[in-house]
Design goal:
12 helices; Rossmann fold; binds nicotinamide-adenine-dinucleotide; 43% helix; 4-stranded mixed β-sheet
Length: 389
């Protein structure tokens, strides 16, 4: 576990507090506020490093006593010796308002299968476009809150603004991140800690593809693909897992959360003249299995999804740089005269006769989150194009 010191207190206390409010499925939003009088003060013993388990246990006792005495949870929790406090709420807007909190935080509106994502807080890297954008939209439509974390900060911001204005409340947050940069990923997770306390689901979706013959590809291109698609997943898991582990401690080890990597069909079988990508996607599954074995002690499931070709997405369909146009120009599909011919050729490779869609990936995501008895798996979503043995 990371060293917990007074200096880093804002990044490790909110996840513990959020864990304390958990019902095992999700938890309250815990947001850091400046200059707000706190209803409940928690002690911070001595100078760090701290004994996290003991601290969390004593905080849980005080929190439970407050909830029992007032028949509601505290609007604000402060930490002795600091000038800031944390607003609590069933939504982000309620947490910021610090007034009129809901009476029973644990009561979920609906425990049906359809409501599995309701009120869950998720983060999607590469969420500004493509599969990521589709996942973000679906999670919000399911009643969740979503961080859109992308190198394309403007795209992430525009999407968050659109979703918030459609909802009439805060349902999406944008974050600028480069998943290949350790400081950037650390800052992203610090920002999550002070905005919502932490997360229920981390989706490592950001990815890039540069195809090329092994005899021709530059080392720089190979490393570019590897750093985003493989190393990016390591860095994201490193910082997400620390935070999710703190939440689990706050909940007295009763809060199961998820990390999901978006790998690919090319993570399950080789891809001709596309080795950098396929290698990184295979590697992602190796990391998934290994992280799953380790993080099971923190109640974190780690799984991967392996989608088939997203033929409607920008990677394939962009009229100038998309793979259909590139393959047509390169004569990769014999006899193809138009983009439509190339598309048909790729569709006909799939037993279910079409490209993968975002909703297919979202179904796999919901399955993974709902399933409490599986971890370390690579779930294919390929229309039958890849069959596991
Ligand atoms: N498109 C497909 O056919 C397909 C098939 C299987 C798997 N996948 C995987 O799904 C994921 C999404 O693919 P897509 O086709 O939607 O991609 P896309 O190119 O449409 O979108 C990728 C997003 O990731 C962001 N991104 C790129 N580098 C980043 C970095 N360093 N840090 C943060 N964000 C970064 C981009 O800005 C972009 O918004 C990828 O991991 C990809 O490998 C795609």
């Amino acid at each position: 576990m990371t060293q917990m010191t007074k200096e880093s207190v804002k990044s490790w206390v909110p996840p513990i507090i959020r864990g304390m409010t958990s019902d095992g499925e999700t938890a309250l939003v815990v947001t850091v506020l400046e200059d707000v009088q706190a209803e409940l003060q928690l002690p911070l013993h001595g100078a760090g490093p701290f004994e996290i388990e003991e601290l969390a246990a004593s905080w849980r006792t005080r929190y439970s006593r407050f909830c029992a005495e007032h028949a509601r949870y505290p609007r604000t929790i402060g930490l002795e010796g600091t000038s800031w406090s944390m607003g609590l709420g069933i939504s982000y807007d309620e947490a910021v308002r610090t007034s009129g909190v809901s009476k029973d935080p644990a009561a979920r509106a609906d425990n049906s299968r359809g409501a599995i994502m309701k009120r869950k807080v998720s983060l999607v890297t590469g969420g500004a476009q493509g599969f990521g954008e589709g996942i973000v939209r679906s999670l919000v439509a399911e009643g969740g809150y979503v961080y859109i974390a992308d190198l394309n900060a403007e795209g992430a911001r525009t999407l968050a603004l659109q979703l918030n204005s459609q909802a009439g409340s805060t349902v999406a947050f944008s974050l600028a991140v480069n998943v290949t940069d350790e400081d950037s990923v650390r800052q992203m997770m610090d920002s999550v800690a002070s905005t919502t306390g932490s997360l229920d689901l981390f989706v490592s979706n950001a990815g890039v593809l540069k195809a090329g013959s092994v005899k021709e590809m530059s080392l720089a291109d190979f490393q570019f693909v590897t750093s985003v698609d493989y190393t990016g997943f390591f860095l994201c898991t490193k910082f997400a897992a620390r935070q999710l582990a703190l939440q689990n401690i706050g909940s007295d080890h009763a809060y199961m959360t998820d990390i999901v990597a978006i790998s690919s069909k090319s993570g399950l079988e080789g891809s001709n003249k596309n080795g950098a990508y396929a290698g990184a996607k295979f590697g992602t599954i190796g990391l998934t299995q290994s992280f799953a074995l380790e993080l099971v002690t923190d109640n974190i499931k780690v799984n991967a999804i392996c989608p088939g070709n997203f033929l409607d997405g920008p990677l394939w369909s962009d009229p100038e740089r998309g793979l259909f146009v590139q393959y047509l120009r390169a004569g990769k599909v014999p006899g193809a005269n138009t983009v439509a011919d190339v598309r048909r050729a790729y569709e006909s490779k799939v037993p279910l006769n079409r490209g993968c869609r975002t909703e297919d990936v979202v179904r796999a995501l919901c399955y993974i989150v709902e399933q409490k008895y599986e971890t370390g798996q690579a779930v294919p979503v390929t229309g039958g194009q890849v069959m596991l043995n």
